[in-house]
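Quick question: what would this complex look like in 3D?
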Amino acid sequence: MEKKYGVYICKGCGIKEAMDVEKVAGAAKKLQNYKFHDALCSPEGVQMMKNEITNDGVNTIVIAACSPRAKAAEFTFPGVLTERVNIREFVAWTMEPNTDATNDAAYDYLNMGIVKVQKSELPEPNILPDLDSTILVIGGGIAGMTAALSAAGAGSKVVLVEKDAQLGGLVNKLYKKIPTGSYINKPLIVDTDINKTVSEVESNPNIKVYKSTTIAKTDGQPGLYNVTLSNGETMKIGAIVMATGWKPYDANKLDYLGYGKFKNVVTNMELEEIARKNNGKLLRPSDGKPAMKVAFIQCAGQRDPNHLSYCSSMCCATSLKQAQYVRQNEDALAMIFYKDIRTPGRTELYYKEAQNNPGVMLTKADVTGVSEAADGNMFVEMENTLFGTKTGEKVKVEADLVVLAAGMVPTTLGPQAYADGLTAAAGGGDEAKKNYLEQTPKPDYILNLGYRQGPEIPTLEGAAGFADSNFICFQYETRRTGIYAAGSVHQPMNMAEAQEDAAGAAFKAIQAIDHASRGVAVHPRAWDVTYPDPMLIKCTACKRCTEECPFGAIDEDEKGIPKYNLNRCRRCGTCMGACPERIVSFKDYSVDIVGSMLKSVEYSDDEDKPTIICLVCENDSYPALDTAAIAGKKIDPAFRFISMRCLGGMNLVWVADALSKGADGMLLLGCKYGENYQCHFVKGSELANTRFSKVSETLNRLQLESERVQLMQVAINEYDKLPDMLNEFATRIREIGPNPFRTM
Amino acid sequence: MAENKVLVVGGGFSGLTAAVEAAETGSDVIIVEKNPYLGGRVTQLNKYFWKMCPPNCGLETQYKRIKNNGQVTIMTMAEVEKITGSEGNFEVTIKTQPRFVNEKCTGCNKCAEACPEERSNDFDFGMSKTKAAYLPHNQAFPLQYVIDGKACKGSSCAKCAAACAYGAIDLNMKPETKTVKVGAVVMATGWNPYDATKMDNLSFGKVKNVITNMMMERIAAPNGPTAGKIVRPSDGKEVKNIAFVQCAGSRDENHLAHCSYICCLASLKQASYVREMYPDSKVKIFYIDIRTPGLYENRFYAKIKEDQNVSFLKGKVAKIEQGENGDVKVTAEDIHGGGKITETFEMVVLATGMQPTAQSLAGAGVKVTEDGFVDQATLPKGIYATGTLKTPVDVARSAQDATGVVMKSIQSLRRK
């Protein structure tokens, strides 16, 4: 495409009052076609640009006006390569009006925008051929079946793979379930109707069910997975829902609560089986007598750093339900000993029903142990109860059946623990690693991905083995594009929640395939048609990109040359930042584009006018800068902000580019480190900082002070602090003095 | 032929999630939002529990997705009046209140500078003022000013119209009603804070320095009435000794019978705001049960509990009275120790709960159950309720549920 340029400079919103727009437009003179408008976003301003696009064949435009966060609809022109230059928030609203420094800044911004479009190409989607849209659901429990039915209901073909001989999962073991919705004037325990769901799945023409089957291998990428089943069958798959559920916590570890010691101490899941087998009667394992005094011990091994640090969310309600089983025998008593009763939301009304039941006794208590009583009974020993006892005073309560409310362990924990163990062993040397591999039994893998970065979805340190990415706002922001966890393998949840979650995961799976079919990325860049296009002929097989890709999108061939799987890619540019050969480029985002932009800045000869290149994460820091401008804060005119998709894309060559050209300082603004803040690209700013740690070498070579180059962590709501942070940095740079390269 | 269009009622986090996800999968979407801005309740929050990350981070991403997607139509200051038709072909009547500022607004602030009138700022629960011409908050989306029709003197003043260089002010705007055709409807109108004045014994509005948890969020927020400094309303004193009263209205058959889910975690979060800002501060939490279910939430509770300056007392607060010098006296039953205790604090936060908004949808044909929520099973095919309309949940679970609801909406669009 031959470019025909148009540069449009807005004078509104205080721009013309803050700067000499004629001077600023000097940057556009080389492109000849530049125009001013009093309000570029007005219908007249937009029409002016539209006319040039339609009538004059302008196809590459630079709009110097407000932040790209404003007026998106007005300044979107399909098929036109467009660059927004933010001279309103970054200059007019934050700098002293009409100083040389302000004019210079606006000039540089416009110049950088022009350089960017000169170096960029209009992106076109890269749609991989022969995409398949079948959804693979792994796990045939309630979550998996719901996911399968959801996807099938929207017209997708579904393959459902279940490792057991029948569908239904753990729900098969339940006697009854808690109804959903309102509890007012309704039965408190209802049939699970799991067989109805199973037959719906098995009779659905869009769902193909494999039982007694697991996944032997998953190769490929969204839209193009090659999946091999344990029976040897292979199939093409578009996207995957992982709904492999949970296992009850190993009750043998709960011997302090009498499990394994006393026959009449059972887990909550075992009580379900007892009730189901005996048609609702709770018969004691030791002698088959009906249980008349049933004690429920809540948080059995939960909220306990020695066992499970988390709360499984469902056990309080489960025990309340099981108390209703007890109360089907009106002479029987249910006693629930809890730390806190957790029945959030409408479930509170379910709790209320138990409180109003004369045969259900509830008390807060710290259960310290279970000891033997006569006739197969047990004493539950406790302190800090609500029986009117003093703090620390011990109480014993006799029960003829004790139920431990044990928690959930995700099926992903095994593979994760194995991988963690391997990493730890590898830290001890090759010998230790070898021993580990030989001696440790292999876990039950779920996905068996043929990815360079490992066979499963990586789980986070804080997620206790659950396949959760720990985003509050984005529950399906998976670390493996196209693979979505659903139900209790995702997070601890109850049956109704698992069904909602499964519908959501099935939707995301459909969406991932839809996006692949249109050649766009998925969340958080779901509009992006650009893609990394590495010039592999220059690749040295250093493997940095394959190691650092946050999504495991890049595999390697036998020589170590990266193999990009585009449909796994999220377009963050981490590979671009990682590459020492600088060969990874997007059509509108590359090492050369950003390098050329920062080299185009006119570094002043004047000692008092430092220039600082500032690379800004577009997700948090950029909006924080805009907000500071809206809040009327002033920012030192030394800064030239350049927007980055993620700081993970920061290539070290830019430091040398900027400093050798005359920049006095370089600052990176990225999001906060760690799992609890969370970069959408996993740890972009941390990666940038790691790369930065190697920068002192470059600086030493250039004989420059290392304080000139820094990274700051900024959250989007720190716009109130950000101007001070920036201004302090600028002051430090002034104290250090000008970059000696400037005048050379 | 079914309309390939989804109407989302409510632009809070649930509605935004539903809208963006549906739009990114090829559906046209209309968001009907009653406020002049999107984001709903979470825009007022300083931080999210338990991660202590800023809510605007997620909102910014949602707005960016909307801007780049182009298939979402946003109707602010609008409410649904009536829904007729059936799955695949609904006809929805929407009423829009006048904003008095049109799309030409650039967000330049000149109207607010020129405006001589003030209004109480409902975004800050009345703890601050704005001009009658105002931007709802500094990260508002759409970035478009609004004029409060009640505070504005209208065309007799019109200073804003004179100050606006872009022809964006139209003081003659009238309410408008329009009808749209859609294939599916997602109801996501969320919740309101329970009216704290209804609990006589907790003395909100009568005793100074008794505030609600939502007010505390505004006080702690950098764009709030005190620019993020936690001070008490009566005299601006730094708050070093604070109490949180859990279940202020929730789990109480005279008020809200349900548990509002978020208040325990919110108070733990707010306790950490205070503890971080003032290292010598003390916090006391009066509770019935501490409800922090889930994978991460319980560890958050455990972490706060380790702090020696945060204490917990199991017992319901019976009475709140004015102490000396603006302090607040709290009397509560002490379930463990027995008897009653009375203690004095510099400020008291009422952990008020969620008042569901289901009732407001009755006009749109939505059936409300006896407990104030909506059961999906009672809704007509093609209309889906999500988020806190169904049961109190937090943001994470709202996002989850809203995504599941999009699945169902897409089924509605594809069924016919």
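Answer marked as accepted. The mean pLDDT of chain A is 96.
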